[in-house]
Every structure is written in C-alpha cells, then in structure tokens.
Amino acid sequence: MAEAKTAVKAYISENFLMGQNDINLEDETSFLELGLLDSTGVIELVSFLEEEFKIQVEDDEITPENLDSLNKISSYVERKSA
Q1: Computed from CA positions of residues 71, 46, 63, 12, in that sequence, does the dihedral angle turn out positive or negative?
Q2: Span 2-18+26-81 CATH architecture
Q3: What residue ranges do the domains of the chain occupy?
Q4: Do 57 and 63 meet the contact criterion of CB atoms below 8 Å apart?
C-alpha cells in the first residue's frame, strides 16, 4: 500500500522531523530507535491514521509491531482496511 507509506512519510516529515533534512526515512527505519516519536507523538500519529485512512486503532494495537516504521504502518493500515 504505497499510498499509506507516502502519506505517513509526509506526515512524519512535516510534524516530527521539522526540517531536519539529515534524517533519511527508509521504509524499515525504526521511529523508536531514532527517537522520533514519544508518547504524545504516537497519539498524534494514531489520530492521523484514523482520520486519513478511516480506520479505528484499538488501544491494544498501539504497539511497535504496528507503528514503528513506514512498512509496519503500511501493513497495519492495509490489514485494518481489509
């Protein structure tokens, strides 16, 4: 789901990188390892995903396995949209 990756990458770049051009977000880049998302950032990301992709993210789904990279988010959104 390239559409999800593109939208999430743009959202992360705009809202969390804030012009830090030295960070290269690859599909497998861990947001946690980079320190990109704190607890507030995760909540903001979840709100974005719910609004952008018309999905409902359950509390028990807010895990690194679902939300820690562009690939993981894309797969998660695809599963939730199916």
Answers
A1: positive
A2: Orthogonal Bundle (1.10)
A3: 2-18+26-81
A4: no
- Whole-number Å distance between alpha carbons of 1 and 10: 15
Any idea which residue has 């939730």 for tokens? 80
Q: What is the pTM of this model?
A: 0.90
> How far apart (Å, rounded) are the C-alpha atoms in residues 77 and 1?
8
pLDDT beneath 50, residues of the chain? none
- Phi, psi (rounded to 5 degrees) for 67: -130, 15
Cα–Cα distance measured from residue 63 to residue 51, given in angstroms and rounded to the nearest whole number: 19
* DSSP string covering 29-76: --HHHHT---HHHHHHHHHHHHHHHT----GGG-SHHHHSSHHHHHHH
